[in-house]
Amino acid sequence: MTITEKILAAHAGLDRVEPGQIVSVKVDVALGNDITAPIAIREFRRVGAERVFDRSRVVLVPDHFAPNKDIASAEQCKVLREFARDQDLEHYFETGEMGVEHALLPEQGIVVPGDVVIGADSHTCTYGALGAFSTGVGSTDLAAAMVTGEAWFKVPESIKFVYRGELPPWVEGKDLILYTIGRIGVDGALYRAMEFTGPVIERLGMDDRLTMANMAIEAGGKNGIIAPDATTRAYMEGRAKRPPVYYRSDPDARYAEVVEIDVGRIRPQVAFPHLPSNTRAIDDVGEVPIDQVVIGSCTNGRIEDLRRAARVLRGQRVAKYVRCIVIPATQQIYRQAMCEGLLEVFLDAGCAVSTPTCGPCLGGHMGILAKGERAVATTNRNFVGRMGHPESEVYLASPSVAAASAVKGRIASPEEVVA
Amino acid sequence: MKFRGRVWKFGPDIDTDRIIPARYLNTSDPAELAKHCMEDADPEFVAKMRPGDIILADKNFGCGSSREHAPIAIKAAGVSCVIARSFARIFYRNAFNMGLPIFECPEAFDGIEEGDEVEVDAGTGRIRNLTRGTEFRAAPIPPFMQELIADGGLMAHIAKRAAKG
Fold first, then answer.
1. pLDDT-derived band at A417, boundaries 50, 70, 90
2. How far is A190 from chain B (nearest CA, A)?
3. For a disulfide at A309, which of A10, A182, A376, A399, Cβ 3.0-4.6 Å?
4. Is the CB of residue B154 less than 8 Å from the CB of residue B97?
């Protein structure tokens, strides 16, 4: 069995499962945010439920339109706050202690290897980086899980991605996943599990792994997953709120497909509008002037991402008439960036540094684009109108490329800025 | 259960941001969401369509966000059902959970033009193009899903199960 099949089988109380089989599984964590949870809470009440199945396993994070951007958003956040208080939820994160949910949950050790996690947010697939089965669902599925502690799934077929070779300079987790999506397309893994393996993944730090699993959904994947190893164990140490269970795929596990990727010739990647699969190597970008840069989000707002951005921005200035917005994804990352002097680098370069929020990534607030404007963002989607006006454009890239682009005022390679 | 209406055609990879842009997600009121249904794919859609009309799309309809606001907006706008070559996974789930009928059919997209009158039989998955006299078969709805629909959606299904004790 694959790691995905093993986790689902264990949570369904079965010895084994087959792809295509529909199983009802126990959920270790059920997550909602200020956009999706209000609908789930309404449904929860509508069926007459009184208590959530487990107050330590339902997690609410107001992060999308928070800090509240307007009265309607404030009302949505209030629904979460009152529900959390009423249910006495162990994990509710108020502004001031919150973070972008998919950066926050791993950091706080709320998700552990071997878990089944559902979240009413498509990027819930992020936690696959820890060796958990983790997938995005809608509000109704969240509501059902809040009541029963269970969710149903069709066991997905798995695609195995094997990454080999030496990572070239400036090529990061973001480039690997953009390259992969560019190769298989935005529905290349539709309904399937994406299992990331190989020597390159084994050498990758946790922040890069989280970035890769985060974007499995952009290839249509049900989940992204990486088998836990020494890096995972080290990451969980002193963090895990529950004992982790470490699963690996059997050597004879069956895959729908195996995709081999030699990373040695991959260059930093840029996804052009309006699909994450519309990728080009940095050398083939041409002259693309930009108006805004966003460094943050559940994809690339972690400490390693900020270090990389700072490495490029140190001693540099953001180009005139360009806004560069840096958003540490959690309070802990914010503090760490401050202690390491990264915030000073950003401020010296002329960046705006924000409290954690998902705001700009989904065109919510804190960085909306006007008609005809272009942004380079370390976020995960460049759909039509994603960051603002339907006639604006988003280009997806790594923190290093985003930082270099801020300095040059056009999409640029970090090699042009750092000697 | 049969649906009959005019068809509005959309291309591949219609994402949830185009179905209901995030700028409207500071509410979950179906009537409000319905006003902006498909706005970034076709700003005139809501003004042009009539209740009962059908959305026909190419592959990977509903890709992107997990927002249930997408099927809610489509249903509240009065669209009777969605037919596509394929659906993104979370949208597929959400549509069933919300009681929005959707039909996966690889051939219908090429055999139906915008404005054609179409009838869909939910029970059999038969799609008839009344304008052109042609017929297509959608994938049958899995038994597990049929059970959910018969109970009136996932939450009603759970309420029923709870009542049985």
1. very high
2. 7
3. A399
4. yes
Give the length of chain A: 419
Cross-chain residue pair A275–B23, CB shorter than 8 Å? no
Going residue by residue through chain B (165 aa), what tens digit of pLDDT does each one get?
789 999 999 999 999 999 999 999 999 999 999 999 999 999 999 999 999 999 999 999 999 999 999 999 999 999 999 999 999 999 999 998 988 889 999 999 999 999 999 999 988 899 999 999 999 999 777 676 777 767 777 888 878 877 775
| Segment A200-249, tens digit of pLDDT | 999 999 999 999 999 999 999 999 999 999 999 999 999 999 999 999 99
Mean pLDDT on A9-16 = 98
Residues in Cβ contact with B144 at an 8 Å cutoff, skipping those fewer than 6 apart = A22, A152
Evaluate whether A72 touches B25 at the Cβ level (below 8 Å).
no
Give chain A positions within 8 Å (CB) of B104. Answer: none
| CB-CB neighbors (< 8 A) of B142 in chain A | 22
Nearest by CB: B90 against A43, A138, A147? A138
Tens of pLDDT, residue by residue over A62-101, are 999 999 999 999 999 999 999 999 999 999 999 999 999 9
Cα A155 to Cα A253: distance, rounded to the nearest angstrom = 14
What are the angstrom distances between the C-alpha of B25 and each of A144, A308, B15, B140? 22, 33, 15, 33
Chain B partners within 8 Å of A386 (Cβ): 17, 22
Strand pairing report for A29-33 and A116-119: parallel
Contact list in A for residue B65 (CB cut-off 8 A) is 121-122, 362
| pLDDT tens, position by position, A147-157 | 999 999 999 99
CB contacts, 8 Å: A76 with chain B: 26-28
Question: CA of A120 to nearest chain B CA: how many angstroms apart?
Answer: 6
For B67, the closest of A36, A222, A381 (CB atoms) is A36
**B7, B118 in Cβ contact below 8 A?**
yes
Residues of B whose CB is below 8 A from A220: 60, 63, 88-89
Mean pLDDT, chain A, rounded, equals 97
If you ran DSSP here, which 8-state letter would residue B50 be given? Answer: -
CB pair distance less than 8 Å for A122 and B153: no
Residue closest to A162 by CA, chosen among A267, A258, A266: A258
- Residue B119: per-residue pLDDT: 97
With DSSP H G I counted as helix, E B as strand and the rest as coil, what are the percentages for chain A, rounded to 5? 35, 20, 45
Residues 361-380 on A with a CB inside 8 Å of B are 362-364
Q: Chain A residue closest to B153 (CA)? A: A140
pTM: 0.96
Measure the CA–CA gap between A255 and A194, rounded to whole angstroms: 10
Distance CA A280, CA B136 (A): 39
Give the separation between CA A226 and CA A208, rounded to whole angstroms: 11
The SS3 assignment for A146 reads: helix
Q: Is A147 in the B-facing interface, judged by CB distances under 8 Å?
A: yes
Between vectors from CA B26 to CA B60 and to CA A224, what angle results, nearest 5°? 40
Query: A142 CA to chain B: closest CA distance, Å?
Result: 10
